[in-house]
Amino acid sequence: MRNPKPADFVKIDPLSSPTLIVVIDTEEEFDWSKDFSRDQTSVRAMRSIHRVQDVFDEYGITPIYMVDYPVASQPDGYRPLQEIHASGHCLIGSHLHPWVNPPFEESVTRRFSFPGNLPRSLEAEKLRVLTETITERFGVPPTVYKAGRYGVGPHTADILEDQGYKVDLSVCPGMDYAGEGGPDFSNFSAWPYWFGSGRRMLEIPLTAGFSGRLRRWGRILHERASRPAFASLRAPGVLARLGLLDKTWLSPEGFKNSEHQALVRDSYRDGLRVFSYAFHSPSVEPGHTPYVRSQADLEKFLSRCRRFFEFFMGEFGGKPSTPLELKAALTSTTRLSDSEDSSVC
Fold first, then answer.
1. How far apart are CA 146 and CA 97, in angstroms?
2. Most buried of the four, 11, 56, 220, 327, by CB within 10 Å?
């Protein structure tokens, strides 16, 4: 997927309320520090998904669970979600982890852990199998996609369009995975944009970026501060503590609530109105991710979610939405804007 052009970015009323979508990468428990394996497909953590769904329900949030093949194909994975989905309290999307998603024609390597690096026919077939499996389990075909490891490639947009997808959530602004063979999002922003033929599909990037007084020069300054020559000075941490520059993801995994609030406030000042909050489903049970190793970690994790939602929907005056609701609203706004532009001409 290419960098968006200025004309691709969605038109958003600067007076509109800030909008939040909540995205859960709903996947198997695997050891992030080790090589990828087709054998790591346990989804036992899904038995605890109610812990975070209860928090969503408290704040009127309809999350979207981006489901991968191990979750969609095993009862321990899909049954807890079927009840939530049947009640109308969530949406279901597709999350492609190619190393555990049939057909298995490629070797298991770090490069091929990014689905966009697969041959086009194999990337398409894996997504077709995943889409059909999710449709069988939940009765509705998924139309929102997020590539595993943010691994979009040159054929991903065409494949999504061919298979009826409407929204993609794969872009991770400011991150460069090229060293592992993945995509480079260094020059991407968190601003939503249209893509695909006729610009009919919507990209909603993860809200990741810089806060602080020097954020305008964030990418360059952070890159320089992170160089080995400054390692002993811990320059990125110093810049963050001074309120000058902090690189943050809108996620309860590894980031503090104060960082979330600073990112949202500064991004809003810079014009952003759509915010995407994301994490991984295994974090709802201790011991599966680096972020939640103990019961105490889990309590902090859930508290971090609550405190952010209280801030966003309370003090900040925001509102929850879903990727599909957002696409419908932005499509309507774009058509109205285009109509007004043509009438002026």
1. 10
2. 327
The CA distance from 57 to 76, in Å, is 22
11 in a domain, yes or no? no
Question: Given a cut of 60, is residue 247 above it in pLDDT?
Answer: yes
CB 230 within 8 A of CB 194: no
46 shares its domain with 169? yes
* Residue 30 burial by Cβ neighbours in a 10 Å radius (0-12, 13-18, 19+): buried
AA letter at 126 = K
Please compute, for residue 340, the number of CA atoms within 13 A of its CA located in the half-sphere on the CB side: 6
Which among 4, 27, 3 is positioned nearest to 149, based on CA atoms?
27
For residues 245 and 87, the model is more confident at 87
How far apart CA 190 and CA 188 sit, in angstroms, is 7
Asked whether residue 203 falls in the same domain as residue 216, the answer is no
Phi, psi dihedrals of residue 206, rounded to the nearest 5°: -60, 140
Strands 19-26 and 274-280: parallel
d(CA 262, CA 255): 11
Give the whole-number percent of the chain exceeding pLDDT 70: 92
Confidence of residue 55 (pLDDT cuts 50, 70, 90): very high
Domain residues for 279?
17-207+251-334
Q: Are residues 113 and 180 in the same domain?
A: yes
Q: Name the nearest CA neighbour of 239 among 252, 220, 253, 257.
A: 220
Within a domain: 5: no
Nearest to 248 by CA among 175, 151, 198: 175
- Please tell me whether residues 201 and 237 are part of one structural domain: no
Q: How many CA atoms lie within 13 A of 315 on its CB side?
A: 8
Q: What residues does 279 pair with on adjacent strands? A: 24
> How many alpha carbons fall within 13 Å on the CB side of residue 138?
32
Same domain, 200 and 301: yes
pTM of this prediction exceeds 0.90: yes
Instruction: Determine how β-strand 319-320 pairs with β-strand 144-147.
Output: unpaired
Counting the structural domains of the chain, the total is 2
